[in-house]
Design goal:
The protein has 299 residues and is mainly alpha-helical. Helix content is 49%, strand content 4%.
Length: 299
């Protein structure tokens, strides 16, 4: 089997069977093109079905020598594994040469965080005399109190608030739902916004269930949340460049510093893998710390 027809079949598999986006298919295709170029450049060109684990390891080393960063190398490796899984399904090969291929170590950057003092200063800087003040306070309390992504915040629904038992339902990446505990400060701010301000806003059709609205009754945009946070940072003289995600980082870091179990934080953040949550721990800290944090509706 030649490389061109095999890669073409792989592209069709990604589109029809895996339902990947055009951008993802293009990225996989570029990676397979690199493997193809490497294979045919050998003294004896290697066909797709004849590649061995040793060949793939040499290819990864070759990619590394090209100066490609570890995250790009990891993406290429993911593409290789998907490619050979496809060949195995099509009975082109009898065993998967990429099965024991190891990922390069990816150095994860520790995200910027805010101190608890800085977060309080930003919340206290909100002008509650303005109509949007109570809403903005609720936004910051929920971002920090629940560790939400900005998209999860803008899509938060009234029907997913279970404030009587101190939980909210969050719809995360891939439309996956999770329950997240919500503390007293965030609950109080939410109730003040919903019961005293939101009730007076003329709401647009289709937006009735959205928690956070603008003065015209439409859901807030991600850009607007960025602007609110940037303005508050300027008011308190904060020198860091921050975003809504900084509150999510701070939520996770402060929990782990307080002794929370990584798996508990992973569940609250909606991370697929615990290794994603590990970026919130410093290198000189223990992987797990003592007693795990416990959540109870009446705490």
């Amino acid at each position: 089997m030649d490389w061109r027809s095999t890669i073409k079949g792989f592209q069709a598999y990604l589109k029809l069977e895996k339902s990947l986006s055009a951008n993802s298919i293009e990225a996989y295709s570029r990676d397979m093109e690199k493997l193809y170029q490497y294979a045919i450049a050998q003294a004896t060109p290697i066909s797709p079905e004849n590649i061995k684990l040793s060949d793939l390891r040499q290819f990864i080393n070759w990619v590394n020598e090209l100066g490609m960063i570890p995250s790009s190398q990891a993406r290429i490796l993911s593409g290789i594994k998907a490619f050979y899984k496809y060949l195995l399904m099509e009975d082109v090969i009898k065993s998967d040469p990429s099965e024991l291929l190891e990922s390069p170590k990816i150095q994860r950057k520790l995200p910027d965080t805010l101190s608890y003092v800085d977060i309080n200063k930003m919340i206290e800087a909100i002008d509650l005399s303005k109509p949007e003040g109570m809403r903005n306070k609720a936004i910051l309390e929920v971002l920090y109190g629940c560790g939400l992504r900005v998209s999860e915040l803008t899509e938060l629904k009234l029907s997913n608030l279970y404030l009587d038992i101190e939980f909210i339902k969050v719809v995360g990446k891939g439309s996956k739902e999770r329950l997240v505990p919500i503390g007293g400060s965030a609950i109080k701010a939410l109730k003040l916004w919903i019961d005293n301000v939101r009730v007076h806003i003329p709401i647009k059709k289709g937006e009735e269930d959205m928690v956070f609205l603008n003065r015209r009754g439409s859901r807030l945009s991600r850009v607007y949340i960025f602007m609110v946070i940037k303005e508050l940072a300027e008011i308190i003289g904060l020198k860091k460049t921050i975003s809504p995600h900084t509150f999510r980082h701070s939520f996770a870091t402060h929990l782990i510093e307080g002794g929370a179990d990584l798996r508990a934080v992973q569940e609250m953040l909606g991370h697929e893998s615990i290794t994603t949550t590990e970026i919130y721990t410093h290198l000189d800290r223990e992987y797990l710390k003592g007693t795990i944090i416990q959540f109870h509706p009446r705490n």
